[in-house]
Amino acid sequence: MSDRILVLVRHGQSEWNLKNLFTGWRDPDLTEQGVAEAKRAGTLLKAEGLSFDVAFTSALTRAQRTLALVLGEMGQEGVKTSRDQALNERDYGDLSGLNKDDARAKWGEEQVHTWRRSYDVPPPGGESLRDTVARTLPYYVQEILPCVLRGERTLVAAHGNSLRALVMVLEKLSPEGIMKRELATGAPIFYRLAADSTVLEKRDLIA
Predict the structure, then answer these.
(1) Global pTM?
(2) N or C: which end of the chain has fewer CB within 10 A?
(3) Does domain 5-204 sit in CATH 3.40.50.1240?
(4) Phi, psi of 122 (to 5 degrees)
(5) Catalytic-labelled residue, pool 11, 37, 127, 159
């Protein structure tokens, strides 16, 4: 059986998730719940008998800390890790730091929904999901995927939208399909890949 393993995990709850703020490239830390979610992810992965050879994360604290907590829970603190802003959350531009309810009051429910849920309409000064895919996918192809195909068990701790970009490719989802896909905080997604990088097995690891 192939040992081309890739696990994706969205960071645990951040302080701004809790406050209902658009976060994007801003850099709040995890909440206590977020720390617990990251540790639980590590426990789930350890219970699966998994270990990792290499890890990737973004340039933002909440993803880096999630990765450290996951690996710490697994007793794997020394795993080779790469950090890159290519895996950062989608940049929400002028919405960053705003309360989502305040944004709806300012621009209207329909406009904010379009910015959040359309594939190719960016918020003012920010990125659409298509822009995020264009930033994240080359990094996946050039840096992450080669590790997986060499048989290095690979962990990626990142963000809802940067991980959506990877899920879109792995699961061959349409722009409409990926916008409907929710990624829970601290919930690992396990993939086993074939030699041609297609998915042989996919499982959501939940407690």
Answers:
(1) 0.96
(2) N
(3) yes
(4) -80, 150
(5) 11
